[in-house]
Amino acid sequence: MGSISIRSFVTSLNTKDIILKNGVIILLGVVVFYLDDLEVVNPVINTWFVFALAIAKNIFFIIQSLKKIFHVINKNVAYFRFLIFMSVNILTIIFSYSVDFFCLYQIDPSHFTGLPANLNEAEILFEFFYLSMLGFNNLGFYDVIPASLLAKTLVMGEIMIYYFTIILVLSDFVSLRDSIIDERLKNKEAN
Predict the structure, then answer these.
(1) Long-range contacts of range 122-127, CB-CB < 8 Å, 24 or more positions apart?
(2) Contact, 148 vs 105, CB < 8 A?
(3) Which residues contact 51 (CB under 8 A, 6 or more apart)?
(4) Helix axes of 79-107 and 43-75: crossing angle, nearest 10 degrees
(5) Which of 48, 52, 55, 94 is the most buried (most CB within 10 A)?
């Protein structure tokens, strides 16, 4: 059995490209935080920018996941490599949403309730990472609760990504792969 090198993993799933794209997404969230912190832009505009960024991010993650599914199928990439890609993607989604929640809270703390008083920024970011992790895994929210319509919508967006990623992609990937291959064989036989 051949060994698996880091180079072959990076090449097979375009890992550098994935890391770069996901890094840009997270960086955009951090930029919103700093713009709000510097009070360069109106808080309402920052709030809607965070929301627009989250919607664009959802579309990006869905498209990226679908592209990877077809890449894995077309190149006959090992399933465990696809699972590694999805793991990186899931962690990026969770961290990215925690940055979004953090930005919303920094813009206007009334977007969320249940945060303990006197937390520093790192502790607040951790609380939102915790919220994002629980939300993505559909485990509930416990202490931190989205209070505004916008915050609730962002949480719902993350949960939608959860359903797409976990239920549609990972839980039934083998059936999806077989279905696509069967459809291609039927199309070849028909032509």
Answers:
(1) 125/98, 125/99
(2) no
(3) 150, 153, 154
(4) 180
(5) 94
Q: State the first-to-last Cα distance of the chain, in angstroms, to the nearest integer.
A: 38
Q: What are the pLDDT digits (tens) for 111-139?
A: 999 998 899 989 999 999 998 988 877 77
| Structure tokens that stand for 114 in this block | 């249940």
User: Confidence band (pLDDT; 50, 70, 90) for 162?
Assistant: confident
Gap between the Cα atoms of 125 and 180, Å rounded = 41
Residue 139 is encoded by which pair of tokens?
Answer: 């485990």
The DSSP code for 41 is S
- How open is the CA angle 181-166-68, to the nearest 5 degrees? 45
Taking the C-alpha atoms of residue 132 and residue 139, their distance in angstroms, rounded to an integer, is 10
Q: Are 100 and 50 in contact (CB under 8 A)?
A: yes
